């Protein structure tokens, strides 16, 4: 409020400037950073009310749109609005067949900086009275690596004598590691040398009756995208890739 004279006043309200939010994809999983149930009211946009009701840290964007009975475009627009105000964050879908690897932030976890290990225990332990030791939590978090799926990681610890599933919510452990900057998701891609050559020469055109997976073989589409858009499992994708009419050795699956 800025008084100009005895009869006039200028009312101004300053708003903070936020960076443009990142793109929201159908295979992203939004995680709430606040309790929407405590702040949502009837004056909110109807689409927003429907969308936030299904943000649980598990549902991907496409599933949220389906559950909320809104179009995918409207759901992504609502989520970008929430991202703009820093009320949600985006993660990747969790699968036991996925790979995760340590980030530099893992050093803070090993050093238990700011009590991060106790915070992790409170979030991931299934039974509050059976808290997993700090040593074991650090061992679990630091044993993720490139080329080893969560299932293989789980099996390795079970063979070593620790029944992880009995004491730890694995999805929450991975989620905690990603949010805190201790882990990152290693995505899976497929590339076809024949298809890349066709793209380079401008000869790659959709063919009537052609295999719908071909468009994903340029090395730019993660398996999460294929799983979401084609409603296929990782195993089904691999089987369909094997049946593509391409020369032997043309397809390469890689992680990054």
Shape: globular
Q: Measured on Cα atoms, how large is the radius of gyration?
A: 23 Å
Structural class determined from secondary elements: alpha+beta
Distance between the termini: 53 Å
The main sheet orders its strands as: 1-2
| Strand composition percent | 5-15%
Order of helices and strands: EEEHHHEEHHHHHHEEHHHE
The biggest sheet, with number of strands, parallel, antiparallel or mixed sense and barrel status, is: 2 strands, antiparallel
Number of helices: 12
What count of structural domains?
A: 3
Number of strands: 8
Unreliable spans: none
Mean pLDDT: 92
Relative helix content: 25-40%
Protein name: Nitrogen permease regulator 2
GO biological process, one term: negative regulation of TORC1 signaling
Organism: Colletotrichum higginsianum (strain IMI 349063)
Family: Belongs to the NPR2 family.
Structure explained in plain terms:
This protein is of the alpha+beta class and 256 residues long. It folds into three domains: 65 residues, Arc Repressor Mutant, subunit A, CATH 1.10.10; 88 residues, no CATH class; 68 residues, no CATH class. The protein has twelve helices and eight strands. It has a two-stranded antiparallel sheet with strand order 1-2. A two-stranded antiparallel sheet has the order 3-4. A hairpin with a 5-residue loop joins strand 1 and strand 2. The termini are far apart. The model has no long low-confidence stretch (mean pLDDT 92).
């Amino acid at each position: 409020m800025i008084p100009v004279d005895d009869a006039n006043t200028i009312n101004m309200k300053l708003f903070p400037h936020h960076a443009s939010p990142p793109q929201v994809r159908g295979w992203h999983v939004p995680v709430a950073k606040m309790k929407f149930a405590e702040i949502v009211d009837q004056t909110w946009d109807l689409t927003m009310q429907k969308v936030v009701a299904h943000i649980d840290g598990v549902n991907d964007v496409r599933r949220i749109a389906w559950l909320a009975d809104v179009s995918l475009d409207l759901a992504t627009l609502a989520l970008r609005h929430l991202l703009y105000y820093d009320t949600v964050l985006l993660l990747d879908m969790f699968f036991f067949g996925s790979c995760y690897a340590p980030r530099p932030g893992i050093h803070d976890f090993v050093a238990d900086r700011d009590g991060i290990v106790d915070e992790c225990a409170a979030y991931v332990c299934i039974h509050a009275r059976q808290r997993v030791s700090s040593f074991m939590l650090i061992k679990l978090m630091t044993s993720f690596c490139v080329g080893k799926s969560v299932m293989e990681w789980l099996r390795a610890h079970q063979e070593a004598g620790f029944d992880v599933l009995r004491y730890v919510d694995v999805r929450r452990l991975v989620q905690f590691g990603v949010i805190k900057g201790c882990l990152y998701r290693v995505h899976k891609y497929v590339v076809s040398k024949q298809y890349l050559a066709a793209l380079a020469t401008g000869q790659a055109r959709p063919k009537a009756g052609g295999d719908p997976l071909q468009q994903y073989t340029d090395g730019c589409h993660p398996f999460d995208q294929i799983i979401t858009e084609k409603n296929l499992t990782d195993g089904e994708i691999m089987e369909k890739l094997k049946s593509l009419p391409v020369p032997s050795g043309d397809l390469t699956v890689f992680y990054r």
